[in-house]
Amino acid sequence: MSYLDSLNSTQKKNIDIIKDESIKQGITNPYAIAGLLSIISKESSFIPREETSYKNTSNSRIRKIFSRVSGLSESELTSLKRDDLKFFNTVYGGRFGNSSNEGYKYRGRGFNQITFKDSYNKMGKKINEPIGENPEKLLEPKIAAKASVRFLKDRISSLKQNGKLSSYNANDINDFKNEKDATMAFYHANTGSGKSVNYVKSQENGSTLGGLNKALSRVKDLYNYIYQLVKTEKIKIFSKKTKSTYPTIIITSLLVISVYTIIVYIKKLK
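and the corresponding structure tokens:
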């Protein structure tokens, strides 16, 4: 059974929403769209959600995720994780625009878990949605898609600016040649453009959380789905060849028109 076969109608509908938003924001490379979707798949399974309780998560895993609990004893951490409000205020409070009691309010939400007040406010301005004032709006699929696509698009731009995107055999977001390179690049973008390429590539075999492996195992199915979806809808934004032939067609057409105009003009002079 393919990964797509395991998804319900709501998840597939949200894939369509994210695909449409990607195109709207100028992402027309099928590998890029598939890579972006593969990252969202491992973050939220295409259901916009808010960060859930860690009360049933092992203390060892919590310690791997949140450095702020490193000084707590096992009993203290066990007690803390049972209270969601206190837990999120502890791990997120007083950071990146959050006051000490806003960690719970600005915990992760959306398709790829935007976190912290500063991030909500900045993204809200970029996508022209009031998510800073109303964080729960990131649970709406269309708004969540806007935010996720813009977030990952901006992070890919950062990779390009610091010279790391070329490590994934691409010069820009619409230049990917295969699913793996695109997935690795979007994983790097999502985890932080400041991370080294060597660190990101090492996660393919050594990730403690397994996110990259999940994304890589799903991207081929997502690529095939997106390609067939766009083909069925007859949206001619890309072909199997990721390089667009439209510029060549346009230039050729202009040359033909120019030559025809000159011929007509010469005949009139005669």
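(Above: one complete record from the training split.) The longest helix spans residues 246-269.
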